[in-house]
Design goal:
Layout lengths: L5 E3 L6 E3 L4 H4 L5 E3 L4 E4 L13 E3 L4 E5 L11 E3 L4 E3 L4 H5 L8 E3 L6 E3 L13 E3 L4 E4 L13 E3 L4 E4 L13 E3 L4 E4 L13 E3 L4 E4 L13 E3 L4 E4 L14 E3 L4 E5 L12 E3 L4 E5 L12 E3 L4 E4 L13 E3 L4 E5 L12 E3 L4 E5 L12 E2 L5 E4 L7 E2 L4 H50 L7 H7 L8 E5 L2 E7 L15 E7 L6 H14 L8 E8 L5 E8 L6 H5 L14 H21 L4 E2 L8 E3 L5 E3 L6 E2 L8 H4 L14 H4 L6 H17 L14 H8 L4 H4 L11 H19 L10 H17 L4
Parallel strand pairs: 1-3, 2-4, 3-5, 4-6, 5-7, 6-8, 7-9, 9-11, 10-12, 11-13, 12-14, 13-15, 14-16, 15-17, 16-18, 17-19, 18-20, 19-21, 20-22, 21-23, 22-24, 23-25, 24-26, 25-27, 26-28, 27-29, 28-30, 29-31, 30-32, 32-33
Antiparallel strand pairs: 34-35, 35-36, 36-38, 37-38, 39-42, 40-41
Helix pairs in contact: 3-5, 7-10, 7-14, 10-13, 13-14
The structure holds 2-acetamido-2-deoxy-beta-D-glucopyranose (NAG) (3 copies).
């Protein structure tokens, strides 16, 4: 079939060898997807003559022989040979790949690759983004030339036999997001340059032989979500800088090293951390009570250290904790009763410490399999369990206790009550006094404040050339901040920032500033715009001046991309379907995080295209939290500031209908706005477009065409390059429209949750990439 350009027969049970002449019989083939079958034999030489080949996926088969030379395939973009039985030979195939200047993905995991990695990897394409070599038997040093691959954002070299040091040139890979050298034989110190990888989201160096201290520069990796340095020979104290990486939301694993000294108090900053392991080190001192602030922590492993003192009372706040191991330390005291109230706790190990007294009852303590208490010589239980002695009932003792209880009630209680009343009064008074300031302190706690003069300089005296946006809150300028030497060590992309200046004369602007500070203090996610610093000062006339400084997004906002015709000098940008799906997914991830993964759900309340910013790689970021509200589920203390509609505005076209009926705001309101946004992205029509007949909404307009006439209403620019339009329509566009429709249903109950929405868009994204959608 000489005109065939795409063939996907993955995930079947096909066997046998590929036809030796496949490259000649399919001369126009661009995509060949044969993954997960049982093909064997070698990769036919003729395939290397299929000049147009862009994607070759042979993943998970039984291909044997040497990896051939690819130099005659200049269009090759994605090459996945992982999980076969291929050999490297003299590694000549790597230099042959330097002819494939469009290569973005190279997957070689799980083969029989042996010998040293050649330095010619440094000649691979600059556009290479994903490079996977895990699960092979590659030995020798990592070539320093790896530092040439500046486009890399995924590099997995784990489960090999690499030796020597990590080359410092690794610090050149500025785009790196996922980096793993785990499970090798690497040694020496972790290079300081690791701190240059400011986009890093996951760093895994576990199971090697690294020595020395953790470089302090790691604190500059402010996007890091997972950090695993376990099973090495690192020593020194745990640098405080680690606890300034507020993005750590996954795991922090420092176990099985030689770290010593105390556990820094700052650990309490990591309020979004899921797993903390510092077991099997030489840490000493008390367990910091600030650890109780890590309210989403599920796994805590502190065993086999030299901790002393008792279990901090603040642990009562660890409401998500599932597994806690503090065994083999020198902890003492009674076992705190509150442990029985931690309802998510499934496993508790306090063995081999010096706890004494009666083991509490109820909660986890009723399940003998879930609790390990052996090796605490003075513990006793009131119900017989293996290995622990029974508490002897002491009648006299009880009576004495009763007497002293009466005494306590008579004398101490009145004093206590008086103190409580007085302290409440003092607290209320104090709160009133400081209320105006607290929010600002919160922002400034971690980042240096800047002055009004700094901002005047950065914006070139608020020059109109720097103006990039305005709204009811005020204006946004582009600018360049000159930090003094001692200030902020953040490396900014070309040092450009976006500065949002609040117009405090407008009603609600001050409140909006505070809401935004409060929201940004509590959220960290890849798809949320990051704050750099704030300014709360007075301007040249002595009036209050408030501004927030954000990372600058060179590709502007989504509104500009969807409706360039509204711009004065709008050049015609076109978003491909693929980009639209990716943007939809980014926004869905961000909302899912805000709604479902924060300690208290956060409702954005003003989702619309102009609040979605795009970076150089067209990754989308949700911004503008000026109307956002936390929903406090546990306490009603903040009720009046959270769900009331008092000064909520939102934006016409995106406000859910129930807000008009003064119902309380909810996450389902954001889902509605998201649905409208999705429909807008697919149709290219704004919800406020006057063209809809008889006042119908965008939802109604799309629903009438769904599903048979969708072709007529999709944005025509979106599909113009796709060769396979009907299939793309069926597998990608229609499912996206379906999500858009269900999210924008009139009744909040019928709208799905953002968790489901993001999972569904992710599925569509995978389909789209398999179908080669542009
Ligand atoms: C490398 O690609 C160029 C065209 O891009 C081609 O002319 C050249 O022959 C290729 N090299 C090899 C060794 O095939
Ligand atoms: C990389 O490419 C350059 C120029 O093509 C060549 O001179 C050099 O030898 C290559 N390096 C390796 C290690 O193959
Ligand atoms: C509890 O900790 C001790 C000492 O670290 C260990 O030997 C034991 O296996 C642990 N128990 C469970 C159930 O994990």
């Amino acid at each position: 079939m000489s005109s065939l350009i795409f063939l996907a027969i993955a995930n079947n049970s096909l066997v046998g060898q590929l036809p030796f002449n496949i490259g000649y019989t399919l001369p126009n083939i661009q995509g060949l997807i044969l993954s997960t079958n049982n093909f064997s034999g070698s990769i036919p030489a003729s395939l290397l003559k299929a000049y147009h080949l862009r994607k070759l996926y042979l993943y998970n088969n039984s291909f044997t022989g040497f990896i051939p030379s690819f130099s005659s395939l200049p269009n090759l973009k994605e090459l996945d040979l992982s999980y076969n039985k291929l050999k490297a030979g003299d590694w000549g195939f790597i230099s042959s790949l330097s002819n494939c200047s469009r290569l973005t993905m190279l997957m070689l995991d799980g083969n029989n690759l042996q010998g040293n990695l050649p330095s010619s990897i440094g000649n691979l394409s600059n556009s290479l983004q994903q490079f996977f070599l895990r699960n092979n038997k590659i030995s020798g040093p990592i070539p320093p030339e790896i530092g040439n691959l500046e486009g890399l954002s995924w590099l997995y070299m784990d489960y090999n036999l690499f030796t020597g040091k990590i080359p410092p040139t690794i610090g050149n890979l500025y785009s790196m997001v996922y980096l793993s050298f785990a499970q090798n034989l690497l040694s020496g110190e972790i290079p300081d340059t690791i701190g240059n990888l400011v986009q890093l989201s996951s760093l895994k160096l576990d199971w090697n032989n690294f020595t020395g201290k953790i470089p302090g520069s790691i604190g500059r990796c402010t996007q890091l979500q997972n950090l695993n340095l376990a099973h090495n020979s690192l020593d020194g104290s745990i640098p405080r800088n680690i606890f300034k990486i507020y993005s750590l939301t996954g795991e922090l694993d420092l176990s099985h090293n030689y770290f010593s000294g105390g556990m820094p108090e700052e650990v309490g900053n990591l309020i979004n951390l899921n797993k903390l392991s510092i077991s099997n080190n030489r840490l000493s001192g008390n367990i910091p009570s600030t650890l109780g602030q890590c309210v989403v922590l599920e796994n805590l492993e502190m065993q086999s250290n030299f901790f002393v003192g008792s279990i901090p009372q603040s642990f009562v706040k660890l409401v998500s904790i599932k597994s806690m191991d503090i065994s083999r330390n020198s902890l003492h005291g009674k076992i705190s009763e509150f442990l029985a109230t931690l309802s998510s706790l499934e496993k508790l190990n306090i063995s081999f410490n010096n706890f004494y007294g009666e083991v509490p009852r109820g909660g986890i303590f009723d399940n003998a399999d879930a609790v390990s208490i052996q090796g605490n010589d003075h513990l006793c239980t009131s119900v017989p369990t293996g290995g622990v002695s029974l508490c002897s009932p002491q009648v006299d003792d009880k009576k004495q206790k009763h007497n002293s209880l009466v005494l306590v009630l008579k004398i101490v209680m009145p004093i206590v009550v008086t103190i409580i009343i007085l302290s409440c009064i003092a607290k209320i008074y104090w709160r009133k006094r400081v209320q105006g300031n607290t929010h600002l302190q919160i922002v400034n706690e971690h980042i240096k404040n800047i002055s009004y003069e700094d901002i005047v300089r950065a914006t070139n005296k608020f020059s109109s050339a720097n103006l990039i946006g305005s709204g009811s809150f005020g204006t946004v300028y582009k600018g360049t901040l000159q930090f003094k030497k001692d200030q902020v060590a953040i490396k900014l992309q070309k040092d450009q920032v976006a500065i949002k200046i609040f117009n405090l004369n407008n009603y609600g602007a001050n409140r909006s500033f505070i809401a935004e500070c409060e929201a940004l203090r509590n959220v960290r996610h890849r798809n949320l715009v990051k704050i750099i610093t704030s300014c709360s000062s007075v301007d040249s006339t002595g009036a209050d001046f408030k501004a927030l400084v954000f990372q600058y997004m060179p590709n502007g906002n989504l509104e500009m991309w969807l409706h360039p015709e509204d711009l004065e000098h709008g050049e015609r940008h076109i978003l491909t379907l693929r980009q639209r799906i990716n943007i939809g997914l980014d926004v869905a991830f961000a909302l899912d995080y805000l709604h479902n993964q924060c300690a208290s759900p956060l409702i954005h309340c003003d989702l619309k295209p102009s609040n979605i910013l795009l970076d150089l790689d067209m990754v989308a970021y949700v911004t503008d939290f000026g109307l956002s509200r936390f929903v406090f589920t546990a306490s009603n203390a903040y009720k009046d500031s959270s769900t009331s509609l008092a000064c909520l505005k939102g934006s016409i076209g995106y406000i859910p209908p129930e807000y008009g009926m003064s119902e309380e705001i909810s996450t389902k309101g954001d889902v509605y706005s998201f649905g409208v946004l999705l429909l807008q992205m697919i149709t290219g029509r704004s919800p406020t477009d006057g063209k809809f007949s008889d006042g119908a909404s965008l939802h109604e307009f799309v629903r009438r065409a769904f599903p048979d006439n969708i072709c007529e209403i999709v944005d025509p620019t979106m599909l113009q390059h796709d060769s396979n339009a009907p299939e793309v329509m069926k597998n990608c566009v229609i499912p996206m429209v379906k999500i858009g429709l269900s999210c924008s249903m009139t009744s909040p109950k019928e709208r799905p949750d953002m968790g489901h929405v993001s999972a569904e868009i992710l599925r569509i994204k995978h389909l789209a990439s398999h179908m080669d959608v542009r």
